[in-house]
Every structure is written in C-alpha cells, then in structure tokens.
C-alpha cells in the first residue's frame, strides 16, 4: 500500500501564483505522488485555468481534473476528491499551502511503521515569506493523546493528512457542512476505532495572518459549533454534558474581535518561530 493520490480543491477565490507554488511543492516531493487529483469547485478564473494547464503539460505526475458546475464548498469538494481518487492512500493538500519536500516520504514511512489509518504532522504559519514563520502548530503524536485532544479540538493539521481512503469512506467521508468538515470526519473515524498518529515534524507551511483568524469568528461559526457538538454527542464521541461544555469553551473565541481571537489562538495553541 504505497500508491498515493493527492487531493487538492481549488475555487475562483484562490490566487494563481500561490496555487502554482502549492502544486509545485507537491509534484516535486522526494516521494512523488502517483496522482494529483484537482477538484475545481465551480468555474475558475482564467489565471487559475492557465496554471492548471501549465502544470498538466509540464509535470510527470498524472493529473486528474474533476469539475463542479458551481461552487459547493470545501466539504463537498473534498468528498468529490475522495470519491474520485484512484489509489488506496489519499493525501489532503490545500491550494495555498506549501508542503515540505519530504512530506509524503515521511508520512508514508510512519504510516507503514505504525499500521495507522491516518498520519499528520506539525505546520508552520507565515504571513508572506514561508522561510520566516511566526508560529508552529504542534499536535499530539501518540494515538491515545490524539484521541483525548479530539474531544475538545481538532488533533490533526488538515493539510498534512495522509490516510487510508477506505477508512475515510467507511466513516462516511467528508460531508458538505458549513465549516469544520475535517474535524467532524476525524471524530467519525475515531468512533470507528481508526488509528491516528502525528509526526513531530513540520510537514507543511501555511499562509495565515488576519484573514485566517477572521474566518474563524462570527455567529455562523457559533451556530456551526452547536451543530458539531450535538453531532459529537449523537454519535457517542463525547457525552452530552461534555458537548455542552465544549460548545461554551469553543464559542468564546468566535465571538471576540479578530485581533483578540488571533492573540488567543497564537498564545494558547501555537509556539513562536520555527519548530526545533
């Protein structure tokens, strides 16, 4: 089990230069993927189409493009990607993030050594220069630590995931919900007794800044949090009292002004600078 499909979802709001840099970081891996599966979530800009055409014509990795007639959101796009992937392992990669060159090599080695269903790792966050990160998001690495953290917040950095496709499908795959479709999927996989591990290494560099944290706030996110915690209680991932407490704790940052929310996230959940 070594063949890997990398699933990348793109929509008209993505920036073509960042998208090209992101794709190049995946096709130039020390362990190249066996398929680059691009889900076009609605009509793309001419610049994004030109980027895709250039990638298709210049890289050795097979490129498969799947199109949605209209924008359907991240959950639906990733579900389409998983459904159409041609290999037994799938790696998730965001259209504006940069994978470190050894990401797939390290992840595949870890997955085989631990017989895990899903492998992730750390990320570095940066504003403009990927070589000058301002924070690192570390995650627990052992299965039981991951399972415990998952009861309060996501224990996996989404853009670092390499997973068994069949395990994702058995858990119901991504669902076209408003937000947090990845966290919801991890919970369903953990309820199915899937084994998660994380690598204590940075696997991706992620564009952050004000826009990242502004997308995590507002009443829509609070309503989505209520839906998510009710779902967790329904499937038996957490108890109803725990779900209620989670809702309160996790909703507070969503109602804060953006600068305060950014400060809370970076202070409580990030480490400054590069990973050691």
Automatic annotation (TrEMBL):
The keyword Transport does not apply. It is an enzyme of class 2 (transferase). Its EC number is 2.4.-.-. It comes from the Archaea. The keyword Electron transport does not apply. GO terms for molecular function: glycosyltransferase activity. Residues 5-146 form the Glycosyltransferase 2-like domain. Keywords: Glycosyltransferase, Transferase. Belongs to the glycosyltransferase 2 family. This is Glycosyltransferase. It comes from Halospeciosus flavus.
């Amino acid at each position: 089990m070594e063949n890997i499909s990398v699933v990348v979802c793109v929509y008209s709001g993505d920036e073509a230069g960042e998208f090209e840099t992101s794709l190049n970081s995946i096709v130039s891996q020390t362990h190249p993927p066996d398929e680059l599966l691009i889900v076009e979530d609605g009509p793309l800009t001419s610049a994004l189409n030109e980027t895709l055409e250039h990638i298709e014509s210049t890289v050795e990795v097979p490129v498969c493009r799947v199109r949605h007639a209209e924008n359907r959101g991240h959950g639906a796009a990733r579900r389409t990607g998983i459904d159409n992937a041609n290999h037994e392992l799938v790696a998730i990669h965001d259209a504006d993030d940069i994978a470190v060159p050894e990401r797939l090599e390290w992840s595949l080695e870890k997955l085989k050594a631990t017989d895990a269903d899903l492998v992730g790792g750390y990320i570095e966050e940066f504003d403009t220069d990927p070589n000058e990160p301002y924070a690192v998001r570390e995650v627990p690495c052992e299965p039981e630590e991951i399972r415990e953290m998952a009861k309060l917040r996501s224990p996996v950095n989404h853009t670092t995931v390499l997973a068994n496709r069949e395990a994702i499908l058995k858990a119901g795959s991504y669902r076209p919900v408003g937000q947090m479709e990845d966290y919801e999927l991890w919970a369903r996989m953990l309820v199915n007794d899937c084994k998660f591990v994380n690598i204590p290494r940075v696997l991706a560099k992620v564009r952050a800044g004000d826009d990242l944290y502004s997308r995590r706030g507002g009443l829509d996110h609070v309503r989505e949090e209520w839906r998510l915690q009710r779902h967790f209680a329904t499937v038996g991932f957490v108890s109803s009292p725990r779900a209620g407490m989670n809702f309160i704790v996790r909703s507070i940052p969503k109602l804060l002004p953006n600068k305060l929310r950014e400060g809370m996230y970076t202070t409580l959940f990030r480490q400054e600078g590069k990973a050691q």
